[in-house]
Write a structure and sequence with these properties.
Helices cover about 50% and strands about 10% of the residues. Strand 6 and strand 7 form a beta hairpin. The longest helix is centred in the C-terminal third of the chain and has 19 residues. The relative contact order is 0.12. It has 2 domains: about 180 residues, no CATH class; about 90 residues, Serine Threonine Protein Phosphatase 5, Tetratricopeptide repeat. It has a 5-stranded antiparallel beta sheet. Strands 1-2 form a two-stranded antiparallel sheet. Helix 7 runs antiparallel to helix 8, helix 12 packs antiparallel against helix 14 and helix 15 runs antiparallel to helix 16.
């Protein structure tokens, strides 16, 4: 089974589900006009059946201060159905929380940017993202920089970062500070590798690329393996690059950080993986798994994962959302099924 098949991440037992209306096969909240943060907290508890991040409100105010506009948590049309939208940038990029059906350890509700073919990891959790934003604002030190972001972070900011600590650290490189003092981030690690290449230090580039793939760093995400495949290809290690790309495709395709086709090309696969998965989600494919002794609940979970993979290839999320929801219901995860189906 793909990564992400561990302990089910859910909310507190007995969390009350709001009254649901059914319309056009979609679950809907009976609610009034949308108002940013309170709705998100309620949505996460009552619809996503999860524990809301403690400082979500502060993060959303910070994103608003940065010019992003609030989104309803149920504005999921056209997005991967595991996303809980928070805000939208002027570019159209959506910042969201990721509600795993079954969460890898330490990645219960990461902050992601939603893209057509999946998600890009911004931070492992809300606090880490707040910390990073404050450090970057402090390091920016431009004339137009002011205290608005720090004020928006309120008590969360006071707990996570003290203004001026970046300068006091005497670490001249912002990325180095982030990695040492805040945490690991995919984009920062990838920039670090590219700097090694620019400096002609291929050994350090390879070491950092390999470090990026350690499973405890970004469990459930394929992106580190994709990038490592690109690094290996760049230094002429084609066979290892192919193996790394094939390894990446064992994780959810919507975590590749790029189009499936780009990784399949490095893996030297054409459409055989897509055809294989299409076969697995047919009745014949499912019956074959059952005959081999696989539990019905596991077959349903696998089908949901396969359908998410297939949807990521072209970004056709809405086409499969109802069947994906049915799969989670069949697997004994009714809360996840309701969340998947929910749309404003």
């Amino acid at each position: 089974m793909k990564v992400g098949g561990g302990v089910v991440y859910g909310g507190p037992p007995g969390a009350a589900l709001p009254t649901l209306l059914l319309g056009n096969g979609r679950a809907r909240l009976r609610c009034c006009a949308y108002s940013a943060t309170p709705d998100h907290m309620t949505f996460i508890k009552d619809v996503a059946s999860a524990q809301p991040p403690q400082h979500l409100g502060q993060l959303m105010r910070m994103l608003k201060t940065r010019g992003e506009s609030f989104l309803s948590p149920g504005a999921k049309q056209g997005l991967i159905p595991l996303a809980i939208p928070l805000t939208k940038k002027s570019s159209g990029a959506v910042t969201a929380l990721l509600r795993w059906p079954t969460a890898p350890p330490g990645m219960e509700m990461p902050v992601v940017e939603v893209r057509k073919h999946g998600v890009w990891l911004l931070a492992k959790n809300v606090d880490q993202f707040i910390h990073r934003l404050l450090v970057e604002e402090d390091a920016n030190n431009s004339p137009e920089s002011n205290d608005e972001l720090f004020q928006a972070s309120a008590d969360a900011g006071e707990k996570l970062y003290r203004k001026g600590d970046y300068a006091k650290s005497q670490i001249s490189n912002l990325d180095v500070y982030l990695l040492k003092k805040v945490g690991l981030f995919p984009d920062v690690l990838e920039r670090k590798v590219m700097r090694h290449f620019e400096e002609g230090d291929h050994v350090s580039a390879l070491v950092t690329g390999e470090f990026y793939t350690k499973k405890e760093h970004f469990p459930g995400f394929a992106r580190p393996f994709v990038f490592n495949a690109e690094v290996l290809l760049r230094v002429g290690r084609k066979l290892e690059s192919k193996d790394a790309a094939r390894g990446a495709l064992k994780s959810p395709w919507w975590t590749l950080g790029c189009k499936y086709q780009e990784v399949a090309e490095i893996a030297e696969w054409e459409d055989e993986q897509i055809e294989y998965i299409k076969e697995k989600v047919t009745e014949e494919g499912k019956q074959e798994d059952l005959k081999k002794g696989k539990a019905p609940a596991q077959v349903a979970l696998d089908e949901a994962a396969f359908l998410l993979d297939l949807s990521s290839v072209e970004g056709t999320w809405d086409d499969s959302v109802e069947r994906i929801s049915d799969c989670y219901r069949e697997a004994g995860l009714p809360d996840v099924a309701r969340f998947i189906l929910y749309r404003d």
